[in-house]
Design a protein that fits this description.
Layout (H helix, E strand, L loop, with lengths): L1 H19 L7 E4 L4 E10 L2 E12 L2 E5 L10 H13 L4 E5 L5 H4 L2 H6 L3 E4 L1 H9 L6 E2 L4 E6 L2 E6 L11 E4 L4 E5 L18 H15 L4 E4 L8 H17 L1
Parallel strand pairs: 4-5, 5-6, 6-7, 11-12
Antiparallel strand pairs: 1-2, 2-3, 3-4, 8-9, 9-10, 10-11
Helix pairs in contact: 6-7
EC number: 3.5.2.6
Main location: periplasm
Cofactor: Zn(2+)
């Protein structure tokens, strides 16, 4: 009996050690237009590596990032890899990073960007929540709806309302007809609601309808996680949220 217990304990310990040391894949970068790329980094979710999407925008005056890599309290290697990819492949400095809400898959790499001299900006709500979560604060300069240009690239940052979080914004690139929906928008490959710890599920559908009204012509829609598609992702998200809220009544 003691031998059996020892074997079982050994197997359990080995299983836990293996779960703790599961390596995350290296970053990858996928082009979605001539000057816009999706950077894909990985964090642990549900005990497995899970992909997270951000943007790399190549302008004539340097590079703009949307969201940091999915880093952690102990490592900023993903964001470091994103910066290295930009340096190696685009040969330009990163001028700016826009973070779209205060979860670690969006803001945990701020310290690495600051080391590299990159300015990081957000809404006041995201800046406040970043500090509350123990991350460095971005510059809280974005209002709820603002458009600015860098290197002849127009960039619109828009808060449609609460959903995945109370501070989630999206980024629209009108020249390329690309909408970065972030975690407010679900990939067409996803059929669950994901992390709802900070969600306002009752407001989510209304926020998606605003996106559909504003950006329903989007050629490309980039969700926070999983596959990139087109405006079908907005309709898919609305269906998921509507089904979820109806089931909760």
């Amino acid at each position: 009996m003691r031998i059996l217990l020892t074997i079982l304990m050994g197997l359990l310990l080995a299983s836990r050690m293996q779960a703790q040391t599961v390596p995350t894949p290296p970053i990858s970068v996928t082009p979605i237009s001539d000057r816009v790329f999706v950077h894909i980094t990985y964090g642990m979710y549900g005990g497995k590596p899970y992909p997270s999407n951000g943007l790399i925008i190549d302008t004539k005056d340097g590079v703009v990032l949307v969201d940091t890599g999915w880093d952690s309290d102990t490592s900023t290697d993903n964001t470091r890899q994103v910066l290295q990819w930009v340096s190696t492949n685009l040969h330009k400095p990163v001028r700016l990073c826009i973070v779209t809400h205060a979860h670690d898959d969006r803001v945990a790499g701020i310290s690495e960007l600051r080391k590299a001299g990159v300015r990081v900006i957000s809404t006041p709500a995201t800046a406040r929540k970043s500090v509350e979560r123990g991350f460095q604060s971005p510059d809280a300069i974005l209002p709820g709806d603002t458009t600015f240009s860098i290197g002849q690239e127009s960039i619109r940052c828009f808060f449609p309302g609460e959903g995945h979080t109370s501070d989630n914004i999206v980024v629209w690139l009108p020249k390329h007809q690309v909408l970065f929906g972030g975690c407010l928008v679900k990939s067409v490959a996803v059929f669950g609601m994901g992390n709802l710890a900070d969600a306002n599920v009752n407001a989510w559908a209304g926020s998606i309808r605003k996106l559909m009204s504003q950006f329903g012509t989007a050629r490309v829609v980039v969700p926070g996680h999983e596959d990139v598609s087109d405006a079908k992702a907005l309709e898919h998200t609305l269906q998921l949220v509507t089904k979820y809220t109806a089931a909760k009544k």
